[in-house]
Amino acid sequence: MSSLVDKMEEEELECPHSTSEKRYFPESLDSSDGDEEGILACEDLELNPFDGLPYSSRYYKLLKEREELPIWKEKYSFMENLLQNQIVIISGDAKCGKSSQVPQWCAEYCLSVHYQHGGVVCTQVRKQTAVQLALRVADEMDVNIGHEVGYVIPFENCCTSETILRYCTDDMLQREMMSSPFLGSYGVVILDDVHESSIATDVLLGLLKDVLLARPELKLIINCSPLLVSKLSSYYGNVPLIEVKNKHPVEVVYLSGAQKDSFQSILRLIFEIHHSGEEGDIVVFLACEQDIGKAYEIVCQEGSNLNPDLGELVVVPLYPREKCALFKPMDETEKKCQVYPRRVVLTTSSGESLIWSNTVRFVIDVGVERRRVYNPRIRANSLITQPISQSQAEIRKQILGASSSGKLFCLYTEEFASKDMRPLKPAEMQEANLTSMVLFMKRIDIAGLGHCDFMNRPAPESLMQALEDLDYLAALDNDGNLSEFGIIMSEFPLDPQLSKSILASCEFDCVDEMLTIAAMVTAPSCFLHLPHGAEEAAMTCWETFLHPEGDHFTLINIYKAYQDTSLNSTSEHYVEKWCHDHFLNSSALRMADVIRAELLEIIKRIELPYAEPAFGSKENNLNIKKALLSGYFMQIARDVDGSGNYLMLTHKQVAQLHPLSGYSITKKMPEWVLFHQFSISENNYIRVTSAISPELFMQLAPQYYFTNLPPSESKDILQQVVDHLSPISTIKKEQKMCEKCPETTEQRCTLQ
């Protein structure tokens, strides 16, 4: 260990990853007159081994802050274990510094061996966290973001081939394994936030077992919460463990009876804290996104009536899925105020890893969350309100760990925490749709890594449903392996149904339009969260984009209008204003633009046919519906009573059109619709719908899928359509789409 440290300190390595960008000298040197003393000082400057440039004064300032982190005292122990072992587990609290410091130490290790085994990659579950950590670590290492340190998240790559340390979402590292199964570009892989139990992290944990055997020089670091240590140790065997504890005490206050009227309890606590005059920001963990919007309106309204002498109350809604600005420390302007503005952050479970500020002194926790749980029998998510896990409760408590003191208000009893909360958050592998995961596993099996030992075993019923869906989508051959269609589908970072629709659009000459639809439904919603009283004005604006053929076509209209505005405007400000005036989310539309560009790049790379856009013609409208039906024939519903009550074709759930659907706005309800999304909740809404005809459905749905549908009035109507088709067309359809026998489908449903 000492030889490594000495080598790193003594050698002045000239790193090949240095950039031509200028790094400014410390302020003390900038002010020198160029005299002999200043020249000598320049010669004595310590050089950054990662880029060969002198360290800035900011580097030393940040170094002092890093040395105060709880993880810092474990650096020697970690480096020693890293040298002597292939796997190291680090157990630490949320604010101990393991996510930012450990990757830097691993980069030092890779530098010491001249990158002969590759660089460092650190996975994150959430893309916002990956971006923020990369920015912070680049600052701490005194290097340039996008060069020595970078990040890779879905549809955004801020790295070069020479990047030493990259942060990425776990699903992006998983996708990288399709082209590089043994991760040859990396000498160290760090799996962070393993306790989040995402599907991609579980897959990586399993696949890396085989990769480590094939590459003895590869190092694996696993960062997790203390509650997961025993499970990980039994999964990987006897591996070294480094435990890090945070040192600051937190006062926990349990409030019995607060759950019955949690909103009133939250409001009362916020204003009591504000009136007390105690300094510090407040973070409120709510159950769902809808609660964020409701609380935001109430707190803003009530806060406007507060005594200004108490200071401003700034409400910050931190919505899931949106790439919004993270909650960070106060800037210098705020610090100079005589009365600090107090910030109230409203978030859900997704915000647990996004709170970076040391100014948080109060956390209010409702103790429940709304989770999406997939039901494979009906192919739909259910929105279920459940208690959070003990691990999540501990993470929320640790947000206060960086403060000198803090107070956690739990809107539940201590008995509720011990009896009703599970120790760990349920694994996503056991609650989500596994179709995309199974498609990936089938693809990776080509490289011999498909026999995966999962730490959290997927439900057999979910696996069977995923295999059945892939079979319906023609992604599997008669032996249960990936077909040519399936291999191409796996190239797209999309849901398999959406990938199939894009492939079908090549046949139906509507690729341009289908790429736009795919980008718009993959990006966050393009419609803004409406403030109270703005509904009528927003609907009036949105009506100008409506298309009579359905919501998928409306999304094309919105994207085209956004594109036209961007091309004809001279400034980004004008585009932002246009979006705001039309109650549209500019960041979501920008993201759709990025997604579409990447999808188009994939189309070109694999040389798929690309027809000229023809949006607006009747033939093109029909072709778009054919392409959509080719992927989404399993998501069809029929209005059973003419009043907007839609019965699913595959099960007996009844749903209504979403209020933002064009059909809801115009009050014109089609009998048959194809929908993009359906969730079972208080309001069973189907989202993004377009009208279809039963004749078109019968032309494009696989015959054996129709045969396997449960008996219903809708199926009888479709059978009548079949009976009216000419015998010739029926024979052609069976030849084209029914080469597979229904009896063999069950046999093929085996995960290799």
From TrEMBL:
Keywords: ATP-binding, Nucleotide-binding. Residues 1-34 are annotated as: Disordered. Residues 465-556 form the Helicase-associated domain. GO terms for molecular function: ATP binding; hydrolase activity; RNA binding; RNA helicase activity. It comes from the Eukaryota. CDD domains: DEXHc_DHX32, SF2_C_RHA. It holds the Pfam family WHD_HA2. InterPro entries: DEAD-box_helicase_OB_fold, HA2_WH, Helicase-assoc_dom, P-loop_NTPase. GO terms for cellular component: mitochondrion; spliceosomal complex. This is DEAH-box helicase 32 (putative). The lineage of its organism: Eukaryota, Metazoa, Chordata, Craniata, Vertebrata. The gene is DHX32.
